[in-house]
Amino acid sequence: MLSRSSSSLFPVLAHGTRAVSSSSPPSSLIRTVRPLRHSPPSYHHLRPARSANMSTFKQAPHKLLVIPGPIEVTDEVLFANAHPSMSHVSPDFIPVFGDCIRMIREVLFTADAQPFIISGSGTLGWDQVSANLVEPGENVLVLNSGYFGDSFADCLRTYGAVVDELHAPFGSAVELPALETALKSKQYKLVTFTHVDTSTGVLSDAKGIAEVVRRVSPNTLVALDGVCSVASEEIQMDAWGIDVVLTASQKGLGVPPGLSILVASQKAMKVFEERKSPVTSYYASWKKWLPIMRAYESGSAAYFATPPVNLIYAFHASLTQLTKRSPSLAERFALHREASARVKKAAEELGLRQLPVDPKVAANGMTALWFPEGLKAADLLPRLAGRDVVVAAGLHKDNKEKYFRIGHMGVSVVDKSRGDIDKVIAALKESLAEAKASKNVNA
Ligand SMILES: Cc1ncc(COP(=O)(O)O)c(C=O)c1O
To answer: Which residues hold substrate (predicted)?
Structure first.
């Protein structure tokens, strides 16, 4: 079980905002905040939350979560999430939200793209793209490298887009020459692709895709589904010419689930502003959200729908770690590559084959592995869980029963002192040997 104290101080929130108040502590603190000497051991009589601070907070012991999202989060992030309730229009909260808008640009290496940080999950990013950037009847090309390509295409069709799909063979990404041919045969408003398809662990060449679209069809927008890649794979939005990056809080960004995060280039915003037909969604409408994002960034509050205040505090803590602390973003990407190489090498030594057919298309934040012939999820995953390591089963409809997935993103990779990767490798080795022995599998 994990049990650790925080290794660094809670990052100072913007403009002196502090995670203290006189209200009762949230339940997530109960097990870890030391009660006052004479306090009875009941929730209601615990000392007020002002006694809670980062030096006494550590999260409860738990199994190591190494699925490809949600991932482990740091004590700092969890503690920030336990912020006492705040008004979403409070002067203390406004700069925290504003900082998040500014810092997510840094993560994506963009100077002027427009972030949208909204309550929701990654899926809401597809709705935002479909409802704001595409008008009913317009052509969209989806580069489909797995389960999440199917879903993005489905979402686009729901809003009336005319969708063509280029399907990569299982375990592969769409080849750039096929993209070029498709772009030459038809005018597309938008090309979408899944940077890392979480169902297969396939990594697409974001830079290469954007380069082909820019060269062959300069007016076509490029949208990158980065739910399983932001902060674990490098994304140079401005330099590569990506128009939309959509993601969620619970993977590389290291925050609990609940935030839809989308960043749109100025080119995409112009396309949005010049659309002829009304936006085809209410909640996902940028007409509603753009004034809100602009207000918070410029230091005032505005209301369309209540933002997830506590998650924004958690996001702020995580973005601070990502952009203002060591290791740098470049070092983080290198650490993800290193951890990924370790997991993949260990798996290979155990005789496990990867789903991605070529190391060039294998993600750095996760590993997808075929079960040896004769084994299935029920033989291996409970044995790993018995060793306090939680991995994920297969997801892609074609081969769901035949493989499993390990996530290696965020703090599990960046903070080597935790020993998470060692623990995963050791547990895999033991569990696999045990599973094989139980099924008389020799492969
Ligand atoms: C690549 C990718 N896109 C989109 C999604 C959908 O995100 P969510 O489950 O947060 O709605 C996921 C979820 O895992 C994903 O991995």
So the answer is: 405
